[in-house]
Design a protein that fits this description.
This protein is α/β, with parallel strands linked by helices. The protein has 3 domains: 216 residues, Rossmann fold (3-Layer(aba) Sandwich); 94 residues, Orthogonal Bundle (Tyrosyl-Transfer RNA Synthetase); 79 residues, Structural Genomics Hypothetical 15.5 Kd Protein In mrcA-pckA Intergenic Region, Chain A (Roll), CATH 3.10.290.10. 44% of the residues lie in helices and 14% in strands. It has a 6-stranded mixed beta sheet with strand order 1-6-5-2-3-4, sandwiched between helices. The protein has a 5-stranded mixed beta sheet with strand order 9-15-14-11-12. Strand 14 and strand 15 form a beta hairpin. Helix 10 packs across helix 11 and helix 12 runs antiparallel to helix 15.
Length: 411
């Protein structure tokens, strides 16, 4: 097997491939051009989006040429794959703004060079398509019966599939055809929920151009308990630091289950595979150090080394290291000192800090013994926290359970 494919296999990226032997031979013959597409339907990428981009870096470092395709055109419709209901339609202006944000985040991670690694936008060939010509030239190659055999459509038929979504597979297949014609692209990669769309694109190119192309999908990553990877108590693990702070991002990785460490080190870092296996094999307190290494490596890749160092220092300060060095990097909020004169209800304080979603949530935290302010456990939900609770730095360190910390500064 081609060395780049061996790397992807070793690190857990390969779920399905249309012709692994044929793809391996094509890659052995010289650099192959591949692409991955992403519809900019949200305000930020989250860590689930990043699996293909880690794979792209491996393929690019092995000498192959990558295209990051922004779905400025397909985002106007919405992909039904993996969705239980129709995606909310957003404005063209929002799609363009999201595209700019996504490309900035991806470029920060991949470092586009404009020749062997670059971006494209399917809006360039989809936005002004003549629908009649498209149906004559492209639609005639698709069998409705065959399309309905794919799991994405079969699942949605039970809950309702709109005609606009039914067109999505044709458009994504047309993307692959366009990238083949424009850039000689012969491999599409993506999450396993894209299998049907990828196969359809390969078949379209075979019918129109008489050329063999390939598809490679990655597993949809879940944690060892079966939950979708990257889901936190506050929602998705977004890359935008305004949505998820580098500290909270770091803490997500620092607190992964022991059984997930090896898989996540291999997939979400570029440490040598042998080092990943060695780190994952450690026991007890040494394994916690491996988790910290995982957290630092992923945070460095997404937010930069300086932010990773700050998050590491904050975690050490918050969870056991002596002194307050690094405390300034813990997520915090300033309030007027006068607000503490009459005291603030403990439940309100935990809601203010974002450690509880509501007073009911905060009440449960207190009842379970998990609410702590400056090392004082809150035993009564009616407790008032006033200025006498402040530490020498004029701060309140709130802890929700063993893993979540927030700092309130009285000014």
């Amino acid at each position: 097997m081609n060395a780049a494919l061996e790397t992807l296999k070793l690190r857990g990226f390969i779920q399905q491939c249309t012709d692994i032997d044929g793809l391996s031979e094509a890659m052995d013959e010289g650099p192959i051009t591949f692409y991955e597409g992403c519809d900019p339907t949200g305000p930020s990428l989250h860590i689930g989006h990043m699996v293909p981009y880690f794979a792209i870096r491996h393929l690019h470092e092995a000498g192959h040429h990558g295209i990051v395709l922004m779905g400025g055109g397909t985002a106007r419709i919405g992909d039904p794959s993996g969705k239980s209901s129709m995606r909310q339609i957003i404005s063209y202006e929002e799609i363009d703004a999201n595209t700019k944000l996504f490309l900035g985040q991806i470029d920060n991670f991949l470092k586009f060079d404009g020749s062997t690694l670059y971006s494209a936008n399917n809006k360039d060939w989809l936005a002004n398509l003549n629908y009649i010509d498209f149906l004559r030239d492209i639609g005639r190659h698709f069998s409705v019966n065959h399309m309905l055999s794919f799991e994405a459509y079969k699942m949605r038929l039970e809950t309702g599939l709109s005609f606009i979504e039914f067109n999505y597979q044709l458009l994504q297949s047309f993307d692959y055809l366009q990238l083949y014609k424009r850039h000689g692209c012969r491999l599409q990669i993506g999450g396993d929920d894209q299998w049907g769309n990828i196969v359809a694109g390969i078949e379209l190119i075979r019918r129109v151009e008489g050329v063999q192309c390939f598809g490679l999908t990655f597993p949809l990553v879940t944690t060892s308990d079966g939950k979708k990877m990257g889901k936190t108590e506050k929602g998705a693990l977004f890359l935008d630091p305004a949505m998820v702070s580098p500290y909270d991002f770091f803490q997500y990785w620092r607190n992964v289950a022991d059984s997930d460490i090896q898989r996540f080190l291999l997939m979400f870092t570029f440490l040598p595979a042998s080092e990943c296996l060695e780190l994952a094999a450690k026991k007890d307190s040494a394994l916690n150090e491996s988790k910290a290494r995982l957290a630092w490596e992923v945070t460095r890749l997404i937010h930069g080394e300086a932010e990773a160092d700050k998050a590491m220092a904050a975690a050490k300060a918050a969870f056991g290291a002596a002194g307050t060095a690094g405390m300034e990097n813990i997520p915090s909020k300033a309030i007027p000192r006068g607000d503490l004169a009459a005291g603030i209800g403990a439940l309100d304080l935990f809601v203010l800090a974002g450690l509880a979603s509501s007073k009911s949530d905060a009440r449960r935290l207190v009842q379970q013994g998990g609410a702590v302010v400056n090392e004082r456990k809150i035993l009564d939900e009616k407790t008032l926290v006033d200025a006498s609770w402040l530490d020498a730095e004029g701060a309140l360190i709130l802890r929700a359970g063993k893993k979540r910390v927030f700092r309130i500064l009285a000014e």
